[in-house]
Amino acid sequence: MTKDLLGRHRAVLPDWLALYYDEPIEITHGEGRHVWDAAGRRYLDFFGGILTTMTAHALPEVTKAVSEQAGRIIHSSTLYLNRPMVELAERIAQLSGIPDARVFFTTSGTEANDTALLLATTYRRSNTILAMRNSYHGRSFSAVGITGNRGWSPTSLSPLQTLYVHGGVRTRGPYAGLSDDEFVAACVEDLTDLLGHTRPPAALIAEPIQGVGGFTSPPDGLYARFREVLNERGILWISDEVQTGWGRTGDHFWGWQAHGSSGPPDMLTFAKGIGNGMSIGGVVARAEIMNCLDANSISTFGGTQITMAAGLANLAYLLEHDLQGNARRVGGLLIERLRAVAAQVPAVREVRGRGLMIGIEVARPGTDEADPQAASAVLEAAREGGLLIGKGGGHNTSALRVAPPLSLTVAEAEEGAAVLERALRSIS
Hints:
Layout: H1 2-12, E1 27-31, E2 34-37, E3 42-45, H2 48-51, H3 60-70, H4 83-96, E4 101-106, H5 109-124, E5 128-132, H6 141-145, E6 161-165, H7 180-195, E7 203-206, H8 222-233, E8 236-240, E9 267-270, E10 281-286, H9 287-290, H10 305-320, H11 323-342, E11 348-354, E12 357-362, H12 372-384, E13 387-388, E14 390-392, E15 399-402, H13 410-425
Parallel strand pairs: 3-13, 5-6, 5-7, 7-8, 8-9
Antiparallel strand pairs: 1-2, 2-3, 4-10, 9-10, 11-12, 12-15, 14-15
Helix pairs in contact: 3-10, 4-10, 7-8, 11-13, 12-13
């Protein structure tokens, strides 16, 4: 049955719509931190639908809210008052840390970043955008135009002029050998110099931890230092929180808070985990920025009642059960366990991340040369062992991405780490 479905997939869907594994699997259902495939095999899920199943599979509180809302009304569009949308916007505005915040809902992180770019370029009357090397911000025409990752950038055409800044990757590039303080100083100097050679940009967009890029990040405080330079010139800061938001990093509710000494961003974008699988994205911005558009704009499906009901229930569960704290505690144990394993596996170049957002970079032993074949072999071996993980990285997709639901237990973390240890040792 799976082979038949694979053939049908290939016959009607794009060639570039990639599937994991030499023998792709169909996931049929899930519960908690586990999913099952069409053959009935159970897997511990350490990727959560690309960091989207944030709390748990089939979380009763969310499924109940969705079912009850579906029995009333599923959709009406933004042309009518929508109580669940207003209630979720109120909660997110308060949590964002942005003063006088306004919230606009979309259906994805790509669309959220698209909207933030529209707002920034309109507000600043500039189509120049600063973005980070190794970044990823979505698959729309404008989002691809600011993506600093060749593997996810199918065209050089763009409505924007994009300038790429150093700093998103700590252990590669021309500043890798510097201390943290020297690294930050060099990146700030590079940004300052860059701004002396271009017309004033609209905004800097940055992921506090780069997601598709392999969970890379700068030292804490880099974007705060960037913010000082940007503020002097009126340039906006957009924090792409599609993967780092909602407490996943453990230490902070938003990724930008690791760089918060110069204040919150002017805008933040979100998606993925807030819907726990339902399609929710959005932008939070200061009112003067959000309200700068002088033409009509709506969202047919952004903020629709059924997704807002899911978001409200999911956010309430996350806060009431302190899943941010759980991500910090269990994630910290998992990172230390994986680093202990990595110390004995020459092919592991680095284990990085924070909370339940962990990257394992694989390289040819004794070198910094990326080894995508070895990373793929670990992915396959982990699946054989009953564990689902992801891949990423700007250097030939050689980073393994570990991002379980935030309700992960210590026992499940130990179980997953044991499978990963066997998978990593298999390539030694």
